[in-house]
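Hi P.,

Sorry for the delay on this. The queue was packed all week, but I finally got your sequence through. Input first:
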Amino acid sequence: MLDVVPLLISAFIIGLLGGGHCIGMCGGLMGALALAIPKEQQHKKLLYLILYNLGRIISYAAAGFIFGLAGWAIDQSPAADALRIIAALLLISMGLYLANWWSGLVKIEQGGQVLWRHLRPIAQRYIPIQKSSHALSLGLLWGWLPCGLVYSTVIWSASQGDASLSALLMLFFGLGTWPTLIASGFAAERLTHFLRSRKVRSAAGLMIILYGIWTFPGPHHHWLIEH
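Then the structure:
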């Protein structure tokens, strides 16, 4: 179990560093959800935001497991290195996107619109949130919102060749996004401004680019493969 700890930490950090992107994709929704909670339900705001985000990361974990099954099948074939190369390239693209140096990843996000067009009308039924089950259901659906950060991370997690580990990595990635999105639900302007600042986004993007380079197949991965 100890051999997967560095991967879990990496997944959490990717989610945490992607905070600026998360604010752009979901921060507005979190603020809107908080504002749309009826006055008589305001004392449940934190509970609703937690349940929404819980549903969101459950969806991430489910996606990790589904893609992890495909990753496991590919890992048994000569195409295993190709999947790791794709994962590395996506992480590098995500880093460039976070740092506002290149926005090519937006085109990949657009591909997810096909699924989202079917899910969005269902998600809108739960707004405004009236009870706990609505918050959880909305999060479960919103977890499939087209997002380059999620796509990059899920392919990286799938490249590990283990569906259960892939799901766990996506769970930790989702946990890494929690601080930012919970704070945005409470209109924490200082944190939002900090995470969206050019220096922070550039630093976060650079770190993810470096991790993407590290993800490329090579001798440095032998210790992971052996475990």
